[in-house]
Amino acid sequence: MTDRAIQRSAFCTRRGLFEFTRMPFGLKGPPATFCLAMNLVFADLLWLVCIVYLDDIIVFAQTQEELLQRLDMVLTRLARFAFKVKPSKCVFFRKEIQFLGHIVWSSGIAPYPDKLQAIRDWPTPHCLKEVHAFYGTASYYRRFVKNFAKIAEPLSNLFHKSAKPLRWTPEAQQAFERLKAALLETPILQFPHPHLPCILDTDASDVALGAVLSQVIQDQERPIAFFSRVMNKAQRSYCTTRREFLATITALQHFRHYLLGVKVNLRTDHHSLKWLNTFKRPKGVLARWIETLIEFDYEIQHRPGRLRCNADGVSRPICKQCWCKTVRIPWVDQPLQRADEITEPLAIQTLRLNPELDDSDIANMQRDDEVLAPIIDWLATDYHPTPDDIRTLPLAARMLWSQRANLILSCNVLVSNQSSEDHTKLVVPAVLQRRLFDAAHAGPLQHIWVPSGRYNNYKLRTTGPA
Predict the structure, then answer these.
(1) Tens digits of per-residue pLDDT, 303-352?
(2) What angle do CA 166, 167, 172 make, to 5 degrees?
(3) Deepest of 30, 223, 265, 327, by most Cβ within 10 A of its Cβ?
(4) Pick from 25, 32, 84, 27: which is nearest to 57 by CA?
């Protein structure tokens, strides 16, 4: 460490002030600094003789003699720059090694079993921080899961600002269990072959994008990596053609380091994408997307949806319209009179509700109403208003006054009594209209079945200003 860095690494204890003379763990800058140092040390050997990430070094070869020569080169380079290797942490001449949470061998790459065991035994999260921890750990292996974004959608929705505080719903619990099960059944991914053409299957649903990168190796199509992500609110409003095009562009950008310089076979179930090569005068986002395709050597191939179980499952593992829906068996009654005969004895003929407001409460509400108050005053004093007086009233009051012949005061309460009916109707004030509406449509009257011919007795006997 430099003298300036040593001063800034000082810490105080009961025994005095101490300073680090060598770069310690726990500081913010050391990982990036050490990674840069290792890249400078092995600058001419990276990806040819060895692979380096921080303090992990992989030396690869095809024969034991070649491996010994490369080990000598790597150890000599470390000794030249005063780096030391701890023998207890080194393994030699292995065909299968552990590297960054993965198992790497000649056949491919797979997640480390101990890491998956920890995910399988992960307890149910109780706070947003625990959800972040699980989602981050599971997302590290998302390249092995076909439908990761779709499965984890209920969990990712918990991170939105509108979802706080945490509400652990049954959908989130189901996604939590399905994601753990999917990680335990991950396939073995093959290493990409730079000289072979790549196959990119893309698909889009109403909420997510999916893609599968594969190659034909030894006459068999083998997966290289999976990709999926959830679309934002604006992208979900795209038409079907634009969503499919977005899935293709997003997948090409994600796998760009694999696809540059090789032949790419773009397979999609949307036949309209074949016009990309002949599209004239593109504008806006379509022009930018078509410009992205220029750097790739691609060929678009239409593949029917029934043959696309790989990418199609990435974007839509379940049908939202059919999920958790029971089949209803219709009952057909040929003589319709039989339904009335069966259900009429079970119907409610009379329903009595205890009143919540008395006459004085309703009278006070009506007198406080700006529409009903002047009409009540005119009726109480038997006043005959002039046309100028009526013009000063609100429109609702004028329309109600047009029914003057049916308006009366009963116990100081304004009601409507029509000669054609044998009952009176309450003139409902504005403050009571919403409450009365909720009581009729969301209260005990909501699920009452009324037999034919008795609907008139069930009508709500109220009226009010328009």
Answers:
(1) 775 554 445 544 544 344 433 444 343 444 444 455 455 555 555 555 55
(2) 110
(3) 223
(4) 84
